[in-house]
Write a structure and sequence with these properties.
This protein has about 250 residues and is of the alpha+beta class. The protein has 5 helices and 14 strands. The structure holds biotin. Biotin binds next to helix 1, strand 3, strand 5, strand 8 and strand 9.
Amino acid sequence: MFKIPASTLFLGKNLVDLPECDSTNTYAANLTSSSDPPEGTIVITSRQFLGRGQRGNTWDSQPEANLTFSIILYPRFLAPASHFILAQAVSLAVWDLLFSLGVTDVAIKWPNDIMVDDKKICGILIENQVRGQVFSQSIVGIGLNVNQVEFSTPNATSAKLVTGHSQDLNWMLSELLRQVEIRYLQAKQRPARLVSEYLDHLYWKDESHQFQSNGTIFKGIIEGVDKDGRLRVRQDDERLSTFAAREISYLR
Ligand code: BTN
């Protein structure tokens, strides 16, 4: 059972706490199509059995060990073309939370994976709805590994593994929602600052690495992200290319 956070103004004041569900994003989407939940409604479960990830992947999470939840937002202040600001705001909120726990090597792997020591600790799935010229709804799904210590993949980690001790799930939720609320307001009021902070914490930025796109492997340097959220990579031959999430993978 999760408690309604005392730390926020509107995030989590309406808390839908489910003993189990397939996917909190799917549940939240059904909720918005069948009713009119207030902005900031949280759908959370301790046991998500069909979690969805980016690019059609699944998201597995050990029951009772981690945070798996979705936030319902109505970011009507954003032009649909500026949707990536939301991904930047939520990524930075997770970054802030981990940093406040004393975790130092935290980085945001574009577009919105949170990494600690080159391992993924948090995944974010944002599903947007645009009506005409209005950004009408966004469901922000967050999977944060908190107390899980064994994973089926070698490149995953958790807050417990990186801090050396268990974390209180309720406290983590409350603190994360507080940080998301701050960053969401920043996206509204001072988006330029948010964009530059996102770039400050971007994984592999200004380093030479290998990537793969369209069956071709190449070396390049991440220079940043454009306003549409496309990754800007300077290739070895000095050509600057931009990529959408499905168009590039990181090799090493
Ligand atoms: C990814 O990195 O691929 C994104 C993972 C997002 C997982 C979260 S868990 C809560 C919410 N519900 C889902 O089905 N997915 C997101």
